[in-house]
Amino acid sequence: MKNKDKILQIVGSIAPTIATALGGPLAGVATKALAAKLLDRPDATEEEVEAAILGASPSDLLKLKEAEADLERHLIDAGIELEQVAARDRDSARQRQMELKDRVPGILAALVLIGFFSVIAYMLKYGLPPASAEILALLIGGLSVGFTQILNYYFGSSAGSKNKDVMIERIKAASGGRA
C-alpha cells in the first residue's frame, strides 16, 4: 500500500482490529475482508481497496465496522478450530498407545524425566561449571521442553484454551469491548 500510514490511521480510528491485522501477518486476510465489504469483491487488489478507503463515504465507514465484526468472528472461530485440531492430535496419540499397548512413549517419558531431574540435582549440588555452562543451559532447555510435553501428553494441556481466551480478550480490547 502506497499510503499505508494514512490507511492505518483511517481504519484504526474506525476498525482497530482490522488496522492491527493490516500491520501484521494477517494483512492479506484483512485486505480480503475489506475488499469483500467495501467493493463486494474479495479478490480486489490492494490498490483498489486503498482507493476505496481513501474515498470512503459515511456508508463505507459503516461497512468498515461490519468488516471488523466479521474479521473478529473469523479469528475467534479459527482459534477454536486450531485448538480442536490439537486436541484430536493428542487424543489420537493416546488412543494409538492404548491400542498397541506401546511402551515406547512411557520409556521415553521416564528417560526424559530422569535426565531432567538428574541435571537439576547436579546443578544444585555442584553449580554450573564455567567451561560447559552454555552446553548445560541448552540441555536444561531441551529437557524442560520435553518435561512440559510429557506432562501435557499424560495429563492434558490447557494451553490452547488459555491462548484462545487471551486472543478473545485482545480482540475485545481492540474493538472497545464488543466481540
Produce a short descriptive summary:
The protein has helices at residues 4-14, 16-22, 27-39, 46-54, 58-100, 104-126, 133-155, 159-174.
What does this structure look like?
There is one protein chain. The protein has 179 residues and is mainly alpha-helical. It folds into 2 domains: 4-66; 80-165, no CATH class. The chain contains 8 helices and no strands. The longest helix has 43 residues, at 58-100.
Main sheet summary: none
Percent helix range:
over 70%
Low-confidence stretches: none
Order of helices and strands: HHHHHHHH
User: What overall form do the CA principal axes indicate?
Assistant: elongated
Binned strand content: under 5%
Integer count of domains: 2
Number of strands: 0
Protein name: Holin of 3TMs, for gene-transfer release
Transmembrane segments: 104-123, 135-155
Organism: Tritonibacter scottomollicae
Keywords: Membrane, Transmembrane, Transmembrane helix
